[in-house]
Here is the input.
Amino acid sequence: MEEFDVLVAGGGPAGAVVAGCLARQGCRVALLEATAYDVPRYGETLPPEINPVLRSLGLWEAFQALFPLESSGMISVWGDPLPVEVDFVRNVHGPGWHIDRGRFDAMLMKEAASAGVHVYSSRRVGACCREGDGWTVGECRSRFLVDACGRNRLRIDDDGDGDGEGDGNIDRETEDVLVAIALTISYSGHRPRDLRTCIETTSCGWWYTAPLPDGTAIAMFFTDPAVYCQEGIAIHDQLQAAPLTARRLEGGHIHDSRVLNVSSSCRTTLFGNGWLAVGDSASSYDPLSGRGVFKALRHASSATDVITACLRGDTSSMPMYATQVRREFDEYVRQRRLYYATEHRWSEYSFWQARTK
Ligand SMILES: Cc1cc2nc3c(=O)[nH]c(=O)nc-3n(C[C@H](O)[C@H](O)[C@H](O)COP(=O)(O)OP(=O)(O)OC[C@H]3O[C@@H](n4cnc5c(N)ncnc54)[C@H](O)[C@@H]3O)c2cc1C
Here is the structure.
């Protein structure tokens, strides 16, 4: 049995960064990741606010070595047929970025490994049950467990009776669920020169398009699960209804498509006896916010101090961490509702009726 101070389940941005930060503070850390970073990952647009966070985490050089694509701003057709443009030139933090998420996550994992984290890839963590004063997962044993498994989160039984009824199993509070139809677009010639992120609404949902560093682009159509399942979505019709998006995809062809569920939700219990949740496992946001990765890194950074205090026997900062995550989620929900409410043009359609109540 290998002994660790902390086991981190999930090697996305939140898990890799909290693991690396803890290792730099002298903790023995194991990071268990279900994949070998070989499956498509989504969430490829980073806001300018990520720049100071990457610098403070000592990740700036490794990030720049990925040659991320600079994003000069956003253009949105939302609530009005006239596009609204937001230029990052005046942003104090500098530009935003378009990244290859697979390479970004793998870079964070490598940085964690070079800080001393024992990385176990292709290792899916099942339900976790606390035994005695710690956690056992496969051949690893630790005093503390971090759930960084993303929106699907871990099943955690922290009262040690093995009945699967620990506090960590109480469900999530869900604000909304969307279906994302994600298309990867290749261009036979040059792709459009506009490198901004674009958002555009239709009667059934909204489009998001962004260029990627390898010359391809990502286009996602977000709609309601009921609309998707009961009425069906003809992607060509949705594209015709979104002229700006259609222009940006001209000359491109779809080389991959996937359908994903995307929830806005917050875990009801964010910490317990010897564990806490970070990143999307703690709270997940609508991709409209563009802040999922930023939030994951922020959680990882604040959780590091909370966990090191816990390992010293001081658990007093756990409730403060949870309050902060919850407060940020509530503020995000408030802003999200306000933003959806600014789209009045499709008020007779169920997608918008459900989101502008
Ligand atoms: C369609 C879509 C578009 C998005 N667009 C953006 C965007 O443009 N910008 C942005 O900032 N955010 C975006 N997001 C959100 C962003 O992707 C997430 O907020 C971010 O990835 C959260 O990081 P995380 O580390 O908490 O979770 P994840 O990135 O989900 O990482 C979780 C990790 O845990 C692993 N894992 C899962 N279960 C287990 C298990 N049982 N055992 C071991 N490992 C496990 C997974 O393989 C994964 O590596 C988008 C999300 C979606 C779904």
About this structure: The pocket of flavin-adenine dinucleotide is lined by residues 9-15, 32-35, 42-46, 124-125, 148-150, 152, 180, 182, 220, 260, 262, 279-281, 287, 290-294, 296 (CB under 6 Å). DSSP finds ten helices and 20 strands in the chain.
